[in-house]
Amino acid sequence: MAGIYIHIPFCKKACHYCNFHFSTTKHLMPQMLNAINKEIILRKNELAETVDTVYFGGGTPSLLSIKDLQLITNNLKEHYLINNNAELTLEANPDDITKEKLIGWKNCGINRLSIGIQSFNEEELVWMNRAHNATQAINNLQLALQYFNNISIDLIYGTPLLTNKQWLQNIQTVAALNIPHISCYALTVEEGTALNKMILQGKKQNTNADKQAQHFEMLMQWAFENNYEHYEISNFAKHGFKSKHNSSYWQGKNYVGIGPSAHSYNGTQRKWNIANNALYIKNVEQAIVLFEEETLTATQQLNEFLMIALRTNEGICFTDKRWKIINDNFKKEILSTAKKWQSTNHLLISEKNIYLTNKGKFLADGIAADLFQLS
Amino acid sequence: MKNIRNFCIIAHIDHGKSTLADRLLEHTKTISERDMQAQVLDDMDLEREKGITIKSHAIQINYHFKGEEYILNLIDTPGHVDFSYEVSRALAACEGALLLVDASQGIQAQTISNLYLAIDNNLEIIPVINKIDMDGAMIPEVTDQIVDLIGCKPEEILLASGKSGIGIEEILETIVQRIPAPKGNADEPLQALIFDSVFNSFRGIIVYYKILNGIIKKGDRIKFIATAAEYEAQEVGVLKLSMTPKTEVKAGDVGYVITGIKNAKEIKVGDTITVAGSNTEAIKGFEEVKPMVFAGIFPVNTDEFEELRDCMEKLQLNDASLTFELETSQALGFGFRCGFLGLLHMEIIQERLEREFNQTVITTVPNVSFNAYTTRGEKLLVNNPAEMPEATKLDRIEEPYIKAQIITQSDYIGNIMTLCLGKRGILINQSYITTTRVELIFEMPLTEIVFDFYDKLKSQTRGYASFDYHPIGYRDADIVRMDILLNGDKVDALGSLIHRSRAQDFGRKLCEKLKELLTRQQFQIAIQAAIGAKVIARENISAMRKDVTAKCYGGDISRKRKLLEKQKEGKKRMRQIGNVEVPQEAFLAVLKLD
Description:
The complex is a heterodimer.
Chain A: E1 2-8, H1 29-42, E2 51-58, H2 66-79, E3 82-92, H3 99-107, E4 112-118, H4 122-128, H5 134-147, E5 151-157, H6 164-176, E6 181-186, H7 194-200, H8 209-225, E7 229-232, E8 235-237, H9 244-250, E9 254-258, E10 263-265, E11 269-273, H10 277-285, E12 291-295, H11 298-311, E13 316-317, H12 321-324, H13 328-343, E14 347-349, E15 353-356, H14 358-361, H15 364-371
Parallel strand pairs in A: 1-2, 1-9, 2-3, 3-4, 4-5, 5-6
Antiparallel strand pairs in A: 6-8, 7-8, 10-11, 11-12, 13-15, 14-15
Helix pairs in contact in A: 1-2, 1-10, 6-8, 11-15
Chain B: E1 4-11, H1 17-27, H2 45-50, E2 58-65, E3 68-75, H3 84-92, E4 96-102, H4 109-120, E5 124-130, H5 139-150, E6 158-159, H6 168-178, E7 191-200, E8 204-213, E9 215-217, E10 221-224, E11 229-232, E12 235-239, E13 243-246, E14 248-250, E15 254-258, E16 272-275, E17 293-299, H7 305-318, E18 323-329, E19 333-340, H8 343-357, E20 361-363, E21 367-368, E22 370-374, E23 379-382, E24 394-409, H9 413-422, E25 426-432, E26 437-445, H10 446-450, H11 453-460, E27 465-477, E28 479-486, E29 489-490, E30 496-499, H12 500-517, E31 525-531, E32 534-541, H13 557-572, E33 575-577, E34 580-582, H14 584-589
Parallel strand pairs in B: 1-3, 1-4, 4-5, 5-6
Antiparallel strand pairs in B: 2-3, 7-8, 7-16, 8-15, 9-14, 10-11, 10-16, 12-13, 12-15, 17-19, 17-20, 17-21, 18-19, 22-23, 22-24, 24-26, 24-27, 25-26, 28-29, 28-30, 28-31, 31-32, 33-34
């Protein structure tokens, strides 16, 4: 059980809020694809297990030509043990979706799309500096639904423009179209982004924590009424449609990340490739993958487990092997801290796990930090 | 005895006292150039950095002049207002003083007040203008200032540069010629004035004295008059660059004695040493040094209290002016209520704890010592907000006043007036030292300078003001205890004693500052300032509604874990007041309010 992540670091346009690694000039695209294909081969021995999920993220992987995508998927199949019914997800922007592309993706073996809709509201899309408009969002989503049944869309809430009513309309659209999976993110103003700069300069309004909390509340209510399972803080799925790839991160499974800035994890070590396209290419051409790495101490592994598991509806599961290896003193401390949060209705402790109540989901970070052990 | 000269140097901070002292030692070969470490007289790191002499020292200089050998004892004096009593005792041990004035800065408040102390002690004053080779030296102006001040002739003023060694020989000659030899009689019973003491971890307390009359011999049984304690003089000697043991030290000379005493508290500066069993009179002028400023000192982690106690005790061994007693705070746990000579002294203690003992501490709001009279007619000395009786049981409160002397350029009179009158000062006198330099005398409550007076004075005058003060007794005052409450729970460590007219403004600023420093929690936090039951200021911190980050995928996990681990570390260091977590900065920031 393992996953592969492929990072395609190019975008048509820079969304103002985005802090992922990408470039808006595409002249390095051919070399980049060569390098990615080369890294795939260079690292083929890192994963001994079968691969159950492949995820093309970015950047904007839907920018790739079908031919280029095919080269990568064939390359993967050639050098890794890809399970026959593996989940192959591709992140796609609405403006890249055409009938031809949809067919091409299917032919490459892609069986799940994650579409960056973000909003169905025109004004908001402009505010975010997205490449698509509201019409494209709805039309191309409907087009995609004709070819793919396993579709996820991203939505952003808690932006200054978005009223409660508009937010409700956005999620109601999802239910009306019967989209089986959505990821909803509270707009986060990250350092170094254009949005952050504009807010500091007073050109854009900042986010409001209370409003974000309201939207989150509405979202949970909506999910409950429409039969979406709230299986991770920001992820909601109809029965059978949880993201296998993302779930593997939360289950602590191994993954290999290919491409600039991509992260890999093998159970004790995490490494991340250099986040610089030119340097990445130059070095991979000489068969060198530049990366930084950290080896997690037992306490760090424990803390990561608490932090990630708490965000899922499985919670901190007592049958999880990551729980079983914790020493008894730590377990006692964690449980006693958890009890404190149970008394304020933020956590529930059952026979088999510790998990967040809806009230607790708002404060998941603080609660996780409180459960942490310090080395 | 006729070949002994005892002298000190009176100078403002930065006017070059230590450098000049170095040159005198070098020139007379008291110290070889190889041993020369700049400013040898200041041997604590802290002193060298702050450029002030905290603990005074003495050193013997051998000087050959016109075929005769002279012994010049240079007694170094501390240069800051907090230590004025120690200065006065060092001066009392001398017959003469070099009045050292920076050629570009002119006379400063501190110079004047120490000069007056020297004149009171009948010292022969030798005026020296220092740093004459600096750009911006104003020799004629400074000459006029000195002539006006001490009434000497312009030609009596020596010109020098400690930095380049100009005028050093002339200074030495003048010391021999103008400063009288000490008067005293070696045949009379022993009378020696203690002007300083230091702690040595191997030898215990080393006492520095000047002998007025008699002889002190190794092996003598000696008595300290103020404490009536008797000890054997295990070692006596004179102070060269290091201690030089002798069999005896005679009247007129300056020396040291080691008795095996381990605790600085047993030695009082200003006390008189005599022989055991005699009823020789004490030398006049002895006073118990009283702390002027009080504050709580607490360990950062409550479990480090014992360690802190140990360090405080060690520190007190060599700084007898530091007093402390146990204090318990709900917010900060066990700690000490400490008494300091002044704010600088407090800062020094804090820094010495950090540097020499590796103790990081939380210091609470400093306050002065108040007299509280209860309705039942009792008089209480209140050094701590928590000790102040309830308003209903209080008849009246008295606060200490000081006479503040400020010397500045005339351009800044307006600013200083505004500052001092705003701090409840009363202008007593204003006089021009020269056409552009003014001396202002105020009477002010000491509590008003405890907070931010120095910083304000500095900024209001761009640094062109010097300041000195002396306590002048207690006066009636409308002092109230202001409490800070978090969600209704009193934070004892943030309580303060303050003049009623100041309470509202101070309370408001404190609440605002705390609002900045407290983090949001999952409930609302009310920050209140109150006098008794009356709330005078309030701020709210709204509840944290949502802290959960949006994304937690493969590339986010590491960063997020580190962030939360840091958060957890920070929380561990917080103090719990009721249900509110208070970071340590909150306790410290109070000291740094505008």
